[in-house]
Structures are given as structure tokens and as C-alpha cells.
Sequence to fold (700 residues):
Amino acid sequence: MEQFRPDINLMDIRGSPSNVQTKEKNKGEIRFPTLFVRALQNQIALATKTSLPSTAAPPQLKSASKISTEKMATTAATSSKQTVLQYPGAAPSVSARIHPVVLFNICDAFVRRPDQAGRVIGTLLGSTSSDGTVEIKNSYVVPHNESADQVALDIDYHHNMFVSHQKVNPKEVIVGWFSTGFGVSGGSSLIHEFYSREVQNPIHLTVDSGFTNGEASIKAYVSASLTLGDRQLAAHFQEIPLDMRLIEAERVGFDLLKNTSVDKIPNDLEGMESSMERLYTLINDVYKYVDDVVEGRVQGDNNIGRFIAEALASLPKLSPTAFDKVFNDKIQDNLSLVYLSSLTRTQLSIAEKLNTAAQIL
Amino acid sequence: MANPATGRSFLQAMTSVEEVAPPLRVVQMEGLAVLKIIKHCKEFSPALVTGQLLGLDVGSVLEVTNCFPFPTREEDEELEADGANYQLEMMRCLREVNVDNNTVGWYQSTLLGSFQTAELIETFMNYQENIRRCVCIIYDPSRSNQGVVALKALRLSDSFMDLYRSNNFNGEKLREKKLSWVNVFEEIPIKVSNSALISAFMTELEPDSPVTQCDFDRLKLSSAPFMERNLEFLIECMDDLTAEQNKFQYYYRNLSRQQAQQQVWLQKRRQENMQRKAAGEEPLPEEDPSNPIFKPIVEPSRLDSYLITNQISNYCNQVNGAAGQGFSKLYLMKALHEN
Fold:
């Protein structure tokens, strides 16, 4: 297990620019970097929800950076180049899509975690499409150790599992990592750094299994790093839109996945029945709505009206005779198929009796 | 004196209880395993893929808690060792994260339900030697396009396994054991269970829309391609079945002809013997093993015909099911049109 000692711990930044500046600076001048770093501490390494992250921060930082660059320029031995604080303010153009298997895997891993671990961490696999959408298709857990200021991740395990997964599906590559728990913590930035060595712009997924705030929050972040010259100060985790439409789970049916135990998987007729019932209730609702609007009980909404009209118009218009012909043909086809299959089954039982009952002698 | 006797009988009772395992009644799968199987099979469809099931064997319930896929093997023989290594590696890694490390079977994908092959039976026998209770889960991705979760749990019946081991598939043996083609495979009902955490997540994340993707799949009117392929496979299977039946007819014809020949030869021998007795010579034996008409003809094995019959019945069931659905959809369309 490789260990990560934090190169830059946020708590230590307080004194860091002083390494660059020489000792002739008096205390007053050193205080500026300290102040601006404290402002950074408050703003960064926490998720920001708005797409324009911390609009209040840039003016503050810019002024602080101007001062610091001046100081740097005057006191540094090689003062030819200006060191500027890099701060990407724009929202990233990446978005992510998650498959339900990943969510199930993470929750299962959380339930099975060892007793002393507070959270689980693992790798996300998937693919990136050309327009910047990252599809997260698979995941696996990586054992890790976490203490107050150190995070240790089992890199050999991560690598072995990745190789094994590659054997099955070579198209799935590492796209990021996940952790359970709410929000982004200090240790996360270190792990994120590790993953950014594996893939270019890793996605960090947090799954809040503790249901803080009383809701299930699943968020994805990418990180942008704040650099001052050559030195990285902090990592800014910006939230990216996450598409959680869970179409595959819909296909299986949420009834199967929602309840803690389902007694049997519905066969085709039962499934058909429930779909028909849903359709029936939908049509009923629409009917009631239209009735209400006509009677004047409910204010009609033009958009809804247009949708209904469109839906009704999409029924193909066939003359009754044509429709009857098509309909009867189809019914005849189906009936003949049922007849054929019943005939085959009868034939099978006869054949079997003949085969085993025949005796010579 | 009474005590040791009861003690022994108690011990005997305990040992006899341990040996009889309760019969497998239900397979309980976790939602995670279901989704993983579906994902793997769908990704590689129409190629057929397999994977391993992991879980626990508890009483009359076989729990499947996790699974992992097998890489598709090339025809190369060198990769056999690779496959075993892969399996060991995966099991070891999963053990480290507290996943149940116990193999309880394997899963495979199938195309329109044509999975009853001799290889399946062989794999079953291989697994059965090592694991007391194992199950095979079959998933059909092509049927899932109709909106059905086509998962099936299969097991070989015990009587069939005994017969297979003795490698004896004559008509008599089969009649003795009352083994018809229906009794080869046993289907076990599947239950799905989920942990409370994931159930909470799913309840939160369920979209508010009243219509889901599976409804769209089910109410599709075009079931024709599915039926067509089913019928194609059915026809092919019927051809195979007639080939098998021809084999049996040929065998019976040969057998009866051989017996007729034997009778004729026996008659001649008897006549010869009577003549010899009249002449005072020794009678010749009534049997002659070197004569080719006494060579026993091997009865063809009925295993293939059983498997084919199973496949055919499967196709018929599927056609029935799809046609039934088709009826409902058509009547729905008719009602809509009239309005």
C-alpha cells in the first residue's frame, strides 16, 4: 500500500508563501498572503452549487493576487516573470450520466464495509463520448485506510481489479472515483490527485448514504486546481450536472428494485396487465382534466391542450374497412400461431410416448 | 444400558439429519446481481456470455448476492489457465471487500431460449461434483425487449443426474425411472431482495412520471420480428427432432432384422443338430459369437432427443406468450380506433 503524505495540507498553507519570500519581509507584508489564503480556505474544497462559483471571491482574490504578485516581483530573485494566481472561474462543460448498477454496487459496498471504516472509496469505470458526456457504467470498491491526516489507498488492488475488468470489457476505462458521505473532505483532494494521474479529468462522485439533509444526494464533481506560479495551493471541486435517469432500472421495473423483497418476478402476462392498468389510469386522468377544463372548473393550459391534441392526432387514420382488415389479419395470424404451437406440443408428447414405449421382444 | 442405546440412536439421528439437505425451493437474488447480469448480457448480445454467481446456501433458499462476468474465451487453449487465474484473482479481490466468496453457480445469456444443450449438462455435472447445491441462471436479452425480465433459475433433477452418471440412456432405464423430457430440468422460482439502503435510494430516485420505459417496451405493437425468429428456430428444431426420430427408426429396423436373421440361423442350426444326432455325431452349439449377426447393436442415446424436445417446448411457450400479449394489444388498438 502506497501512502499519501499530504504535500499541501490546507491547514499548513498559512505559512507557505513565506518559503518563497525571503526573510527581509516584515510581518505586515506577510500578512496579506495569509489573509487571502484564509479566504480561499473558506471558499474552496467545498462543493459550490451555483454555476458561477463564488462570484464574491474573484474580486477579493484579484486584489490580493495583485498585491502578492507585486511583492513577489519585487522581492524574488528571479523577478522577470510574473506569477499570477490561476483561478478557473467558468463552469466546466463536462456532464455525467450514471447507470443504476453503479449505485447498487456502491450501496452494497457501503453495507459491507469493515467496521472501522467510515466510508468506502472506489473506482468508477465507463466511457467518455465526444461531446464531453461521461457515462459511468461500472465500479468497484478499493480498500483504503483513513486517519486524521493521512489517507492510504490500496493501489495494487485497484490495479489488479482494473486489469481483471479490462479482460471482460476492454472498452471500459477509468473515469473517476467515488466515495460515500456528504460533501468533499480534505482527504478527497489527495485521492483525486492520485486519480488524475490515471485519467485526465477524473470525476468524483459522492453518494450520501447517511441521508444527511433528509434526502438522497448523489453529486458529481470535477476538480480544478488553484495554482500560484508553480505551486498548487488548493483544489476546487465544481459540481457538474449528473443525469440520473436510470433507464435500465426502469426496464427491470422499480417494483423489483424498490422493495426489500419481492416474491416473484412477474411473468409476461402479469407485466402486461400492470402496464395496461397504468395506461388506463393515465387515460382516465386526461379525460377528467379535459372534462374539468370544458366545464370551467380548471383553467386550461394551452401547452397541455396541444400535447393532448398531438397525442390524439398521432393515431393513424384508417377507414373502418381497412382497419378491420388489418386487425382481422393480425388476429388470424396470432390464432394460427397459437394453434401451431399447441399442435407441436401435442406432437411432442406423442413422440415421446412412442420413443420410450416401443419395445421389441 | 438404556442411556448408551439412546445416546447412540440420538447420534445416529443427528448424523442422518445432517446428510439430508432440505430441497431447494427458491433462489433469492439481490437487485445488484440482477442488474449486473442484465448489464453484462445486454452489452454483449447477440454473443453468448457467462459469468459466476456468488452467494450463500441457507436452508432451502439459495441466496445470490453478487456475481462477476467471465471474459469471452478465444478458441486458444493457452487461455484456459488464464481463465482460471482470472477467476481466482476476482474471488480473492472480492473477498477483501467482504463480498461472499462462495460460488453457488453460474449464469449465462441465451438467444431466444435455445439454451438446452449438452454443454449445459456437462457444466452442471462439473459444478455438481464440487458444490453441493448449485444453480444456473439463464437470462434472455432478446425477450427483455418485450418488457419481460426473462430470468430463469435452472437445476438438473436428481434422477436425471444419476442416470447421466451411469451414462445409460436406454428406453428401459428411462421408463423405470419415469423420466420423461419434462423431468430433465427443474425450474426454481426466483425472489428478489434488496438492502434497506438501496431501497431507500430507489424510492427517492424513482421518477415521478407515471409511465416507465418498461411500459413502452411492453405496449409496442410490433411483435412480428420476435415471432418470426422464434418460428425459424422452431422449424430448425423440428428438423433436428425428425432426424433423431429417423435414427431411432433405423435402429429398430436393424434390430428386428437382426433378430429375424438370428431366428433363421437358429432354425438351421437346430436342423443340423437333429441330423447330427441321427448320424450319431456331437451337436453343434446353438450360439455362435463369431457370427456377425449376433453382434449387439448399440441403442442410440436419447439424451439429444430429450434436449431438443425441451427446446421445442420452450419455443412453443414463448410463441404462446407473445401471441397472448399480441391479442391484448390488438384489442386495445381496436377499442382506441373505435373511439
The first strand of chain B starts at residue 26 and ends at 30.
